[in-house]
Amino acid sequence: MVISCIVAGTDGSPTAHIALRHAVSLASDLGARLHLVAAAPRMPAWVVAEPSAAVAASEACAGAEQDLRDSLDRTARDLRADGLRVTTHIATGEPANVIVSEAEQVGADLIVIGNRGVRRLTGGVPRRVSRQASCSVLIVRTT
Q1: Which of 25, 32, 68, 84 gives 20 to 30 Å between its CA and that of 52?
Q2: Are 125 and 113 in contact (CB under 8 A)?
């Protein structure tokens, strides 16, 4: 099996950075392209129905997305300086769907994701990624 394209799903959490280190190591060792992928927060449905909360929630989501984008861009810049071929992708949506969709779009051979995310829950996103993905998935034990 040749691995030339790796997607690393991240939410910016410390545990996601552990999984990202595995993806970086693999990409470096294999000479693979690395795609850093994150899902931006989506405005909850109840907010849309409550106009007084919509503006504040919209600003909070936009701020969180910008923080995530800034973090991914910094990480990508550092990895490029180390000689890796890195791109970033952020989309609004359910994290597993965003990760799998980007993996399919770039023709990934492997998805690397941590077993826990920002909410400290085990399994939800990694389980859905492993079920939906058409490529291999490495779930890194991060805790």
Answers
A1: 68
A2: yes
> Looking only at Cα atoms, what is the longest distance across the chain?
54
Question: pTM to 2 decimals?
Answer: 0.84
Q: Beta 86-92 vs 33-40: how paired, if at all?
A: parallel
Going across the sheet that includes 86-92, the strands are 86-92, 33-40, 5-9, 110-114, 136-140
Residue 39's H or E segment, with its range, is: strand 33-40
Count of Cβ atoms closer than 10 Å to residue 90 Cβ: 17
Q: Which of 4-13, 53-62, 112-121, 125-134 has the lowest mean pLDDT?
A: 53-62
Beta bridge partners of 88: 36
Calpha distance 22→64 (Å, rounded): 25
Task: Write the CA distances from 77 to 92, 98, 120, integer angstroms.
Answer: 22, 22, 27
Q: In this structure, are strands 33-40 and 136-140 parallel, antiparallel, or unpaired?
A: unpaired
**Token output for 122:** 């085990």
Q: For 66-77, how does the pLDDT look when each residue is reduced to its tens digit (9 = 90+)?
A: 888 888 999 999
Residues 6+ apart with CB under 8 A from 104: 134
Nearest to 34 by CA among 71, 94, 116, 89: 89
